[in-house]
Amino acid sequence: MVKAATTVRERIEQLLTSLRADWERLPTVEAEIGGWDLLDQLTFVEEWPLVEQKLDELARYADEGQLTPAQAARYRGLLDVVERNRPIIQRLRES
Amino acid sequence: MQQIDAALRGATFTPGSLAAHTRKRIGDGQWADGTSEAEYSADVAAALADTSAGLVIYERRGGALAAVLALNPVPPNRRGFAAQRLLFVVYSADRDTIVTGYQTEGLDRLAIPARHIWLRPPPPSGSASSSS
Known about the structure:
heterodimer; A: mainly alpha; B: alpha+beta; 5-stranded antiparallel beta sheet; 5 strands
């Protein structure tokens, strides 16, 4: 059973790590998704809004000034990856 | 125990996927830690059975899908720290299985393709949850 994050600091760490992985893997996903089982393709695309929800949650923490300087730097790096790879998820959703 | 005809049993997850979906939704903070697969499945089934829920059909990646958007039926004691107002459940007609079921804050947070048909309209934005 996965243990839910109990503190904001833990939650921010969890979000930074999982979101970075989610957004960085998009080029690989786009290259390989055509070979996946249809159900796996659908699950990936239909569940992507959860990633966006988490990104919004992290943005709220950032706006509230709850990130440490190191976390803020990681967050800026994450936003660069998001900007670079957002067209990929748009293509996956429309296909 | 009386056997229920498969055609009348309603939509279910594929064998083996229910555990993964339950684990992911707890990890997302949408369901409370300790929620069982049966409880998660029951919550998804409650959304599907909600006759006031929105019902939309569309095509994605060549697959025919139907989705329900219901006021969140999850009881307060099973809601996680990231619980949302609505419960969205996607069903694959091609595979006769539930694709996913998760909570969302609103229709605008979903990515339903431009070509879709609402057979029943979605809940109005800002409606209070039915169980909170």
